[in-house]
Specification:
Shape: globular
Number of helices: 9
Structural class: mainly alpha
Number of strands: 0
Number of domains: 1
Helix content: over 70%
Largest sheet: none
């Protein structure tokens, strides 16, 4: 029952997005525009910090792009009166959080299919680059952490009238450790810092971050949505 309910909830989110194409298209436009702004706002040349600074810009762009999806999380259900029906359904309320986290993660991956090639085009054609396997692994782990934390915070913020303001205030402080770990994992593979142990430690840190907020989301969401 729980598995079928989870699949149905994720499918609902994906079908609504495919019909409207609001969130993903906005996220793609935002992340590409961010790279253009970073590139040409710095005079069209390479950032002063080289590829390491550029990698930091990638993670800033990813986090702020994710906030576009998180701002709309649960908003559609509340606006159209669906939210009360979901809460009254005979399912564990934590499934509502898990389904939204899964759909948010899927949206992020879809956007990054465009974002990572654009990042390479703007910043990684010259000079040393991070290990692409590590970069992809770090991005996927970061997606899980952003989706887990963001869905929990979005559920809390969606009940307020000023959710567009409340969401970043709640989300960004908790996202700082995630960004630091992701930047450290990817820039640590740029020569001459090629320590495999350092990379594994940073990826393990991201995995631990994901685990903590997955457990928080699963355990706390029922209390978050209580009126």
């Amino acid at each position: 029952m729980s598995r079928r309910a989870l699949v149905a909830l994720v499918r609902k989110d994906l079908v609504l997005e495919l019909r409207g194409s609001e969130v993903v298209l906005a996220m793609v436009a935002f992340v590409v525009a961010s790279f253009v702004l970073f590139r040409f706002g710095l005079g069209g040349g390479r950032p002063a910090g080289g590829t390491r600074a550029a990698t930091g810009m990638l993670w800033v762009a990813i986090v702020f792009t994710a906030m576009l999806a998180l701002t709309r999380s649960f908003a559609r259900e509340r606006e159209h009166g669906i939210w009360d029906g979901l809460l009254a359904a005979p399912i564990d309320r934590a499934l509502l959080w898990l389904a939204r986290a899964c759909s948010t993660c899927i949206f992020l991956v879809a956007v990054q299919v465009v974002a990572l090639p654009a990042f390479w085009l703007f910043f990684l054609q010259d000079g040393p680059a991070p290990d692409y396997g590590v970069l992809v692994a770090a991005v996927l782990l970061a997606d899980v952490g952003i989706a887990a934390l963001g869905s929990l915070v979005a559920g809390l913020a969606s009940a307020g009238r000023a959710r567009e303001v409340l969401l970043p205030v709640l989300f960004l402080p908790f996202a700082i450790p995630l960004v630091l770990g992701a930047v450290s994992a990817t820039t640590g593979t740029i020569s001459p810092q090629t320590s495999g142990l350092h990379t594994l430690e940073r990826l393990g840190y991201l995995g631990l971050y994901d685990t903590v907020f997955v457990l928080f989301g699963w355990g706390l969401f029922e209390f978050v949505v209580e009126d």
